[in-house]
Write a structure and sequence with these properties.
Layout (H helix, E strand, L loop, with lengths): L1 H4 L12 E7 L8 E2 L8 E2 L9 E3 L4 E3 L5 E9 L7 E13 L5 E3 L5 E3 L2
Antiparallel strand pairs: 1-2, 1-3, 1-6, 4-9, 5-8, 6-7
């Protein structure tokens, strides 16, 4: 299941998977408030194959030229013509960035698991 949702199987969602940053977390039925402004853009997620029901980002995810914002979480979307949100969750601690700053999620820090 984890390989499927992250685009690593033949019947997977439309890849590449994209990571979005949010200033208000979403719910099971509604997306969060995505960051806007500056040079913000969703970034491609790269992961290794799942092991024991878990995986994480295999490379740093860098959001360059951020607008001033307090980021509280992430969402993972596919790249379909009408993108589908597949995953969401809060950061352990919110991150405040200034205009023009970069926000980096280091390799291994975005943990994904099924329990």
């Amino acid at each position: 299941m984890l390989d499927w949702i992250l685009g690593l199987s033949s019947t997977a969602p439309t890849t590449p998977m994209k990571v979005a940053l949010v200033t208000a977390n979403g719910t099971d039925t509604a997306a969060g408030a995505e960051v806007t402004g500056g040079s913000y853009a969703r970034q491609t997620l790269t992961v290794g194959a799942a092991s024991s029901g878990a995986t994480s980002n295999s490379a740093d995810i860098v959001f360059a030229g951020m607008p001033a914002a307090t980021v509280v979480g992430v969402e993972i979307w596919d790249s379909a013509g009408t993108p589908v949100r597949l995953w969401y969750g809060p950061f352990a601690a919110s991150r405040t960035v200034g205009a023009g700053d970069d926000l980096r999620i280091v390799a291994g820090a975005l943990a994904l698991s099924l329990s």
